[in-house]
Amino acid sequence: MLSNNLIDDLNQRGLISYITNKEALVKLMHNNCISLYCGFDPTEDSLHVGHLLPLLILKRFQIFGHKPIALIGGATSLIGDPSFKEKERLLQSNNIIDEWSLKIKKQISSFLDFHCFSNPALLLNNKKWFKKAGLLSFLRDIGKHFSINTMINKESVKQRIKRVDQGISFTEFSYNLLQAYDFFILNKKYGVSLQIGGSDQWGNISSGMHLINRISKKEAYGLTIPLLLKSNGVKFGKTESGTIWLDPKKTTPYKFYQFWKNIEDSHVYNFLKLFTFLDIKDINQREKNKFDKNQIFEDKSFLAKNITALVHGKKNLLAAERITKFLFFQKINDIKKSDLKQLKKDGIPSIEVNQIKDIQEALILSSLAKSRTQAKNMIESNAISINSKKIVDKNYIIHDNDKLFNQFTLLTRGKKHHCLIYWN
């Protein structure tokens, strides 16, 4: 095992934004199996595509023989990380956080190997130690190692302090100490020497390294990952219809698959480096041949298939591919009733109704339009189809002959947005 190759590989893939004392870390990794961790605060009931990079980096370290720890922030999420947030998060109850923690625990479990013999992954919750930490002892034993001047000057805090309309509460301001304490406890009890996180986490990671050095007189390390932004500055994974979640109930495998199929061509080879385990040389060769017939299309399909299978499994990938083939390549006259029943099972966006007043109501119920005004505008711009037939009448009434096999109607907006209406 040549662990120094891992850092080189991460670097070549563009997965390192900043790394502390690289030479010492490489040497440590070369001679030892290290333990590292990444935290995931359950601020929602699901992870999203923005969490894929840290999860895959944990997986890469495990493949190279190191021990990854995924830490669920059951305690810290009760406070909320202010890092580069425009305003304070809405605080949630203990019960909700516990419920969300269980869901996220299940999602994380599918990425790492918790049963291998040599370096099984660990899944922990920081509630385990924070419920034992008293306020006075925490302030006395931990707080004394931090300077307010230094904390205020952290970029993530400075940005909020300068905002007169928002500012920052003491609750959020204390988050930095809580995450530092996580790193300290994991270092002390589990031998963790490296924390990874997004580049917006640098302030929190460096505080943990500082605390470990002050109390334990040990050197700890930090590695941050670049935040992925689209060309318009919006975080990668945000779309016009919302966030791309890992939970199949919030973002169906089909929609997840299509998200990757529709990324910009300019991102394909970068994303192959970031999100797949293909060898760098293979990816570079693919990029050289990208102007060959259909090469970039095939590489984009490979990316979509690879990530969908990783997140949702091969069965759901096949379902997503069936829906794609049906919606984009099959003629309406060739469709069988069994095809439509299977698509409904596979998870095509669908609604069940008894009756619908008109096309505008259908568009709203199917979430293809937010209002009747928007629905009218879509129809007038020739964006709406029923069973591949363009609808030009903004007051169109759906008739029985629009119901395939008296049971299904395929409603389409543009080329990429579909909903299957199932008539009870």
UniProtKB/TrEMBL annotation:
BP GO terms, sorted: tyrosyl-tRNA aminoacylation
Catalytic activity: tRNA(Tyr) + L-tyrosine + ATP = L-tyrosyl-tRNA(Tyr) + AMP + diphosphate + H(+)
Entry GO MF terms: ATP binding; protein homodimerization activity; RNA binding; tyrosine-tRNA ligase activity
A cellular component annotation (GO) from this entry: cytosol
Domain RNA-binding S4, chain residue ranges per copy: 357-419
Database matches in Pfam families: SYY_C-terminal, tRNA-synt_1b
Motif ('KMSKS' region): 235-239
Self-association and partners: Homodimer.
Purpose of the protein: Catalyzes the attachment of tyrosine to tRNA(Tyr) in a two-step reaction: tyrosine is first activated by ATP to form Tyr-AMP and then transferred to the acceptor end of tRNA(Tyr).
Descriptive protein name: Tyrosine--tRNA ligase
Gene this protein is translated from: tyrS
